[in-house]
Amino acid sequence: MQGNDLRQRAPLIERLPLATDRPWLATGVTAAMIAAALVLRIIADPALPPGFPFVTFFPAVILASALFGLRMGALAGLACGLLAWFIFVGERNSFALDWGGVVAMAFYTLVVGTDLAIIHWMQRANAKLARERELSRALAETRELLFSELQHRVSNNLQVVAGLVSLQKRQIADPQARAALDEASRRLALIGRISRQLYDAAGSTRRMREFLEPLCHDVIEASGRAGIRCDVRVDGDALLAPDSAIPLALIVAEAMANAIEHGFAGRETGVIEVTLTRDGEQRIAIEVRDDGHGLPEGFDIEASGSLGLRIARMLAEQLRGSFDLVGGTGATARLVLPA
């Protein structure tokens, strides 16, 4: 049923030949076209000079072949040829042929045979193309389904790993080790939450705004801090290549997590502003700015012992960019990347 529905929705040229399942209809319409060709030829006979016995029969043969396929085209060719031979070629109302009649019938046979062969070849090629297109559509649907299932399973597995790390933390007494496991669990859980949104089956690029807004929402939701708001502002959107999505997500998430953990320590509310700006066609800058406590006096990211900041700098270098953390009113994490 689905194949019939697709065939009905296809353009007319892709549905040819018609009435393949109703041969009586095809035969009846073909017979009507043959009769019409004969009537038109008889009407036009007084006005036509000698040498045009097949002038109205050729269109009937071509139409029958194009609309109903090779069999109906051959039937029309045979019937039209016999009618033209008997009435208009050589001696009227006779099948007797002189040399001129033989040449005329040979010409008719050659033209009709060529027309039928070309039309039949074109219809077969068109049908093959339609089958290949349908197969490609089915394969594309299967690929998207498998890709979605893979993304779902990867995301679920990452969430399971994050949960196992959290369970393992309960058996460790050392505060630093527990904090490290907390960080690892948080990062795994975050990747699991956003991995379904990072890629599509076609591998197409995404706009940065489309990427940053759900990412920021996921980070805030994962933190459990309902009083913190994140605003995303994009001045000059940019495209994000699929292979840059995970590193960029981790950098932005790390900057936001740092703001939530340290900038808003002891506070229930706060605002994080994520901005993207373009420097011509050369660079883009992503800033994560908070209105929290700011950086400690004399803070140096090079001397910082934060594993998260070291990971952010390493990932920025992987993207051929740079990452820095500066103070002021609150703190600002700045990521600069080639456009």
Q: How is this structure best summarized?
A:
The protein has 339 residues and is α+β, with helices and mostly antiparallel strands. It has helices at residues 2-9, 12-15, 23-44, 57-68, 70-87, 99-169, 175-198, 208-223, 245-263, 307-318; strands at 206-207, 228-235, 239-240, 270-279, 283-290, 322-326, 332-338.
List the helices and strands and how they pair.
Layout: H1 2-9, H2 12-15, H3 23-44, H4 57-68, H5 70-87, H6 99-169, H7 175-198, E1 206-207, H8 208-223, E2 228-235, E3 239-240, H9 245-263, E4 270-279, E5 283-290, H10 307-318, E6 322-326, E7 332-338
Helix pairs in contact: 3-4, 3-5, 4-5, 4-6, 5-6, 6-7, 7-8, 7-9, 8-9, 9-10
Explain how this protein is built.
The protein is α+β, with helices and mostly antiparallel strands and 339 residues long. It folds into two domains: 2-140, no CATH class; 205-339, 2-Layer Sandwich (Heat Shock Protein 90), CATH 3.30.565. It is built from ten helices and seven strands. It has helices spanning 2-9, 12-15, 23-44, 57-68, 70-87, 99-169, 175-198, 208-223, 245-263, 307-318; strands spanning 206-207, 228-235, 239-240, 270-279, 283-290, 322-326, 332-338. The strands form two sheets. It has a five-stranded mixed β-sheet. Strands 1-3 form a two-stranded antiparallel ribbon. Helix 4 runs parallel beside helix 6, helix 7 (175-198) runs antiparallel to helix 8 (208-223) and helix 7 (175-198) crosses helix 9. The longest helix has 71 residues, at 99-169.
Keywords:
339 residues; five-stranded mixed β-sheet; alpha+beta; Heat Shock Protein 90
